[in-house]
Backbone:
C-alpha cells in the first residue's frame, strides 16, 4: 500500500488502524497518497498528551507563543508553492486560488503572533471599600478543531493560530477529503518547535473522531465549520457534555442588484461571488436578487460572461474554475439543477462536463425565473449554481434577502448611498458587502453570521479571544 501519512500525537508520528486514499477531483487516477484514518483511541491518546502539555503551555511566556506562530507563518510562506500544489490537487481549486489561500494562512498565523502580546484585561473599581477587582482572560483548555474540505489550509489556520496564541492545546481533525493540506500544516507546526502534546493531528471520519472529541470531558471546547445537520448534532452532544461550542455552518447568501448599479461592477461581483472556487464557499452568492429595470441587461451580460469561463483541471494554466470536490458533491449539485428545472426555472448551464482527465467537472448554472419559495432558492447547494430572483423595488429586495434560515453574508450593488446605508442597517446577516462579492473577507476582523449560519462567538481577529479564552474575575481585599 506504500507510505501512509500518519497522525501526530504527543509530538510523534503514529500509525492508525486504517488508512484512506486521497485522490484528485481533477483526475481520479491521480493518487495523492494514503492517509491515516484514526479512531476513538487516537483521540484519547491525543487528549492524554494535551492534558500533560497544558499546564506548561498555558503558563508559558507570551513571547514564546508569539515566536512559535511567527516561525510557522514564515515556513508556510517558504513552502507556499508546495502547499498550494497539494491544495489544488486534493480540493480542486485552481492554482492561483490555492496560492492565495495558502498566503492567507501565513497572514493569519503572523497576525495571531502579535495577538499573543495584545491580550488585555481590566482593573475595575469595586463598589466596596479597600477591594481591588481584576478581570483577566485565561486559556480555555484543550480544544477540538473540526474543519471542512473547501478551505483546507485557511480555516485550520484561523482556528489553530488563536488556539495556540492564547495558550490552549489543540486536537485537530481535518476533513477526510483533504488530509494532505492538513498534514503539511501539521509538519510545519511540529518542525517549528511546537512542544509535544500542544498540537495534535488526528485524521479520520467525523462520525468517529468528531464523536470521540465531543464525548471526552477533558476537551473544553469544540470549534466546528461544516454543514447545518452536523452542527445541530454537535450542539446537542456538546450541550450534554457541557462543552463550549463555536460553529460556522451554511449560507444561502443574497446579492441585491439595484437598477442604479453599475452593470459591469454588478456582473463582476456576482460572477466572482457565485461561481469562483466552484461555488464551494459558505459565503457564495447563491441568490441574485435583481431589480426589474436592470434585470434583462444583467442576465444577458452574466450569461455571456458565464459561457466564457474556463472550467477544467485545477493545475491547468489560465483555468478559472476547477472541479467539484467529490463525486457525491457533483451528484448533489446535478440533482439541484434538475430540481430547479422541475420547479419552473429556465436553467442555463449546470451540466456535467467532459474534459481530458476523468474528473468532477460542472458547468456553472444560472436558474432564471426563480422564486424565493423554491427549494433550489432556499437550500444550500454548495456548488456553482445561482438563482436569479426578480424584484420590483428596494423594499422587496430587502425582504427577499432576509427571507432565509441563514444569515452569514449579504451584499448589494448600488450607486445610491442611501440604499447602501439602509441595507447595511437592515440586512439580517453577520457580514454585509457593498459593491463587493459576498465571498472574500479580511483576516483581522470578525467572521460569522446569524440564524442557522453560525453559533457561538465570532472567529478571526481580536474577537477570536471570546471563544479561546475564559474570563476570570479576581477580588483582593487591601484593607
Residues:
Amino acid at each position: 500500500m506504500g507510505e501512509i501519512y500518519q497522525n501526530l500525537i504527543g509530538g510523534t508520528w503514529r500509525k492508525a488502524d486504517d488508512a484512506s486514499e486521497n485522490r484528485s477531483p481533477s483526475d481520479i487516477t491521480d493518487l495523492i497518497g494514503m492517509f491515516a484514518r484514526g479512531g476513538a483511541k487516537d483521540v484519547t491518546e491525543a487528549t492524554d498528551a494535551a492534558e500533560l502539555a497544558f499546564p506548561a503551555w498555558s503558563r508559558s511566556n507570551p513571547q514564546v507563543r508569539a515566536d512559535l506562530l511567527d516561525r510557522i507563518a514564515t515556513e508556510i510562506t517558504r513552502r507556499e508553492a508546495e502547499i498550494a500544489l497539494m491544495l489544488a490537487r486534493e480540493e480542486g481549486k485552481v492554482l492561483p486560488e490555492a496560492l492565495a489561500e495558502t498566503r492567507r494562512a501565513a497572514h493569519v498565523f503572523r497576525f495571531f503572533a502579535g495577538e499573543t502580546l495584545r491580550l488585555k484585561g481590566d482593573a475595575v473599581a469595586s463598589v466596596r471599600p479597600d477591594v481591588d477587582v481584576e478581570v483577566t482572560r485565561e486559556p480555555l483548555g484543550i480544544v477540538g478543531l473540526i474543519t471542512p474540505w473547501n478551505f483546507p489550509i485557511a480555516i485550520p489556520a484561523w482556528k489553530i493560530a488563536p488556539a495556540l496564541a492564547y495558550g490552549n492545546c489543540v486536537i485537530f481533525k481535518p476533513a477526510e477529503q483533504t488530509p494532505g493540506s492538513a498534514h503539511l500544516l501539521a509538519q510545519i507546526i511540529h518542525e517549528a518547535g511546537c512542544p509535544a502534546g500542544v498540537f495534535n493531528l488526528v485524521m479520520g471520519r467525523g462520525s468517529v473522531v468528531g464523536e470521540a472529541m465531543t464525548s471526552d470531558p477533558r476537551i473544553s471546547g469544540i470549534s466546528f465549520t461544516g454543514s447545518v445537520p452536523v452542527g445541530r448534532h454537535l450542539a446537542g452532544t456538546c450541550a450534554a457534555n457541557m462543552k463550549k461550542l463555536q460553529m460556522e455552518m451554511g449560507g444561502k447568501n443574497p446579492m441585491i442588484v439595484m437598477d442604479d448599479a453599475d452593470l459591469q461592477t454588478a456582473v463582476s461581483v456576482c460572477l466572482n461571488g457565485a461561481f469562483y472556487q466552484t461555488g464551494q464557499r459558505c459565503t457564495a452568492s447563491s441568490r441574485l436578487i435583481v431589480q426589474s429595470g436592470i434585470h434583462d441587461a444583467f442576465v444577458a451580460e452574466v450569461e455571456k460572461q458565464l459561457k466564457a469561463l474556463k472550467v477544467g483541471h485545477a493545475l491547468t494554466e489560465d483555468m478559472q474554475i476547477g472541479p467539484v470536490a467529490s463525486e457525491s458533491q457533483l451528484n448533489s449539485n446535478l440533482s439541484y439543477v434538475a430540481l430547479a428545472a422541475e420547479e419552473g426555472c429556465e436553467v442555463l448551464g449546470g451540466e456535467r462536463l467532459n474534459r481530458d482527465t476523468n474528473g468532477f467537472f460542472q458547468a456553472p448554472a444560472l436558474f432564471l425565473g426563480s422564486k424565493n419559495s423554491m427549494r433550489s432558492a432556499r437550500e444550500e447547494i454548495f456548488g456553482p449554481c445561482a438563482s436569479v430572483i426578480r424584484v420590483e423595488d428596494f423594499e422587496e429586495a430587502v425582504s427577499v434577502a432576509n427571507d432565509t434560515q441563514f444569515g452569514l453574508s449579504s451584499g448589494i450593488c448600488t450607486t445610491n448611498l442611501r440604499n447602501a446605508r439602509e441595507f447595511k442597517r437592515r440586512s439580517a446577516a453577520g457580514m454585509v458587502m457593498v459593491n463587493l462579492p459576498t465571498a472574500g473577507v479580511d483576516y483581522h476582523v470578525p467572521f460569522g453570521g446569524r440564524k442557522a449560519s453560525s453559533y457561538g462567538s465570532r472567529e478571526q481577529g481580536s474577537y477570536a479571544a471570546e471563544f479561546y479564552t475564559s474570563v476570570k474575575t479576581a477580588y483582593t481585599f487591601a484593607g
Summary: The domain at 4-249+453-477 is CATH 3.40.605.10 (Aldehyde Dehydrogenase; Chain A, domain 1). The chain has a mean pLDDT of 97.
